[in-house]
Amino acid sequence: MRTRFRIPPMSAPVAAGPADALAIAAEIRQGRRNAVSFVTAAIAAIEVRDTRVNSVTRIFGPRAVAEAEKIDRRIAAGEDPGPLAGVPFGVKDLFDVEGEVTTAGSVVLREARPAVQDATVIARLRAAGAIPLASLNMDEFAYGFATDNAHYGITRNPHDPARLAGGSSGGSAAAVAAGFLPFTLGSDTNGSIRVPASLCGVWGLKPTFGTVPREGAYPFAASLDVVGPFAGTLADLRVVHEAMNGAPMPALPVLSDLRVARLGGWFAENVSAPLAAAIDAVAGHLGHLPVVELPEVARARAASFLITAAEGGMLHLPRLRRRALQYDPATRDRLIAGALLPAATVLQAHRFRAWFREQIHAAFRTADVLIAPATVGEAPLIDQPTIVVDGQAVSARANLGLYTQPLSLAGVPILSVPLLGTGGLPLGLQLIAAPGGEPALFAVAAALEAAGVAGKVPLPKGR
Predict the structure, then answer these.
(1) Options 37, 92, 169, 416, the catalytic residue
(2) Known catalytic residue at 92
(3) Annotated catalytic residue, options 168, 172, 272, 408
(4) What digits encode the pLDDT tens for the residues 147-182?
(5) Per the residue annotation, which of 55, 106, 192, 304 is the catalytic one?
(6) Among 119, 140, 168, 357, which is least packed, fewest CB within 10 Å?
(7) Is 330 found in the same domain as 181?
(8) How many Cβ atoms are within 10 Å of 153's Cβ, its own excluded?
(9) Is 408 a catalytic residue?
(10) What is the span of the domain harbouring residue 197?
(11) pTM value > 0.90
(12) Partners of 369 in beta bridges
């Protein structure tokens, strides 16, 4: 299903060069490498290596090369194209890219008209000098935690292709983890940035609800959806977020001035032994952390599920009436079930949401940042897609959001921190702050990165 772009023959192979966005931009701005060489090297890497991962659905080859040539001309003329000059990036296939069809991971939209303009965040990134290179695989209409797509195939984890990459932004996380692209864009409704970032061992940010514009991003559940970045380094994540947000982040607070606490109860249950040990190591670097317990977390997860199902179902109901058989059956059945939910049930879920939001905000009276696991442990195997919850093997596709779904209700910013497990596979931690608390999240994350307990998880040799 992928649209291929063939690179013109070159007299000599082009080195991949730096893997992080800021280093790429520095080389281009200083004239040590041109933007075209980075773009063509990224395309070559995807064409050769993505057959094992399946993170990319389309390559915007001719357009990306043309944009890189413009960047190079601006550099030659003495202009500064921006902080992300010439950096190639990928977008989850629910963002509008001018001239391209936005499929949202479904063949249902394949015959739609091409987008007439870029999504707002893509326009902002282009203004900062970055170059959209590819669209990335996802669960159909963002409904799932596995990136197991009936139309475009399953995205595999670059750390072990026998394992899931997570979802629904699995292609976005996998493309960064594999080293194809320094940063990518995703969306998060119930954990669709945090889950794949955790399983693939990269940084991911779910910004404060409503702060980063969603115009030009295909919706799932409008009262929960946010858009955000993945990156291989924390510094890249910050500069990309600033470009998407349209403003620089305020100065980061001093770590010693921040109160950090650990979520217990629901967030301490079902955690794998390697992840529990990794979180203990994080806590050891941050000092003695008090434990905070949120009430009624199971009900919060159920409320998030109901709201998502109802909003997604009602959004798709007109099209389902006409073209239901074109949907992935698993997606179709869940959307239909959501559309059939009684209004009284959905109203009750929203009322509970308001109450639970108050409980989370109350926790920030005594803590500036909360830490919690992102998933129960390592990425599940594709041929055994289950996780263990309360001693029972349950569907990974439905339950990987065990720790992310409840927190989505509050609209708070959450940074997914990559940790290395004892078995060599990635693990993930959530850093949570009150609305607008992104600077506190980055301050804690920077301390963990400096201490060597957090950072992009390296691929095994040979991958």
Answers:
(1) 92
(2) yes
(3) 168
(4) 999 999 999 999 999 999 999 999 999 999 999 999
(5) 192
(6) 357
(7) no
(8) 14
(9) no
(10) 21-245
(11) yes
(12) 260, 433
